[in-house]
Amino acid sequence: MFKALADPTRRLLLDTLRERGGRTLGELEEVVVEHTPMTRFGVSKHLRLLEEANLVVTLRSGREKLHHLNPVPIQQVHDRWIDKYTERRLTALTTLKSQLEEKP
Amino acid sequence: MTDQSTTTTATATPAATPGAEGTTQVFRIYIHATPERVWEAITSPEFSRQYGYGGDVEFDLTPGGTFRHTASDDMKRVGMPDVVVTGRVLECDPPRRLVQTWNPVWNDEPETTLTYEVEPAFDGTTRLTLVHELTGAPSTALEVSGNSAADQHGAGGWPWVLSGLKSALERA
After folding, report:
1. Above 50 in pLDDT, residue B18?
2. Is there a single domain that holds both residue A98 and residue A57?
3. Torsion angles phi and psi, residue A70, rounded to 5
4. How does residue B10 score in pLDDT terms, banded at 50, 70 and 90?
């Protein structure tokens, strides 16, 4: 899973699917090429790696294959290393970080 | 390339594909247990008390049969009614596939649909996929999606519930 996350294109794909799931390879390719030049084959390879890491699940809908983000593995990492007490402090810190970074 | 431009035109038109409008949520987890045990964990109150938000699930496992999720003592203490989720069974094929409607009583929204797919996977594991169709139910969608902050919007949602189901089965 960490290998799957260690790449900017794959993180972009996950962010895109988090915003809205149920996207085809064609739609995802359009989003990726706005950021970086890549062939459909390249995008499909990244998606396969994300699927192997269980971070992306594909469902068939007629002739199309729709891609969805699967948040469960991230929850499992969370359950393993972060307890409820730590979580409160982390929430405070991430809120602070996003507030500071919103300022120009 | 011709292939790419065709696709671009196709995706530019709003698609009427079910699930393509972003109201479908998908959750998948691999569990070291047989499909039969995973099925039992989804459908029996003995298990449902042990993971997630607790409470008892009550299923009449026939098409058209009723579903109720009753409140745990903890839920009642925070003011939840006796029955917290209602629904009906649409399809039932033990231990492989269960389709049901799922209506949390605290949201005044159209009914949502859950599909559980239980499949044998590699090395004696079972792959559980949960698909939640949430058309017209934005509050429920937000709550079940899983929130990183423990005290907001239903907290962990399905990621947390399924992670708990896996732990309950693997320590059993």
Report:
1. no
2. no
3. -110, 105
4. very low
Averaged pLDDT of chain B: 86
Contact A70 B20 (CB under 8 A): no
Please check whether residues A15 and A43 belong to one and the same domain: yes
Residues A15 and A54 in one domain: yes
Q: What is the pLDDT of residue A94?
A: 80
User: Alpha carbon B151 to chain centroid distance?
Assistant: 20
State how far residue B29 is from chain A, nearest Cα, in angstroms: 7
Residue in A72, A80, A88 to test binding to B, most B beta-carbons within 10 Å: A72
Q: Which residue has the higher pLDDT, A81 or B150?
A: A81
Q: Are residues A66 and A77 in the same domain?
A: no
Question: In this structure, are residues B131 and B115 in contact, taking their beta carbons and an 8 Å threshold?
Answer: yes
Please give the Cα distance from B125 to B119 (Å, whole number): 9
Buried b or exposed e, range B94-120, using 16+ CB within 10 angstroms: ebeebbbbbbbeeeebebbbbbbbbee
Of residues A23, A57, A64, nearest to B26 (C-beta): A57
CATH 3.20.20.140 is held by the domain B23-171: no
- In Å, how far are A8, A51, B137, B159, B169 from B125, measured between CA atoms? 31, 17, 33, 18, 11
Distance of residue A1 Cα from the nearest chain B Cα, in angstroms: 13
- Rounded to an integer, the average pLDDT of B118-134 is 96
- Are A26 and B7 a contacting pair at CB < 8 A? yes
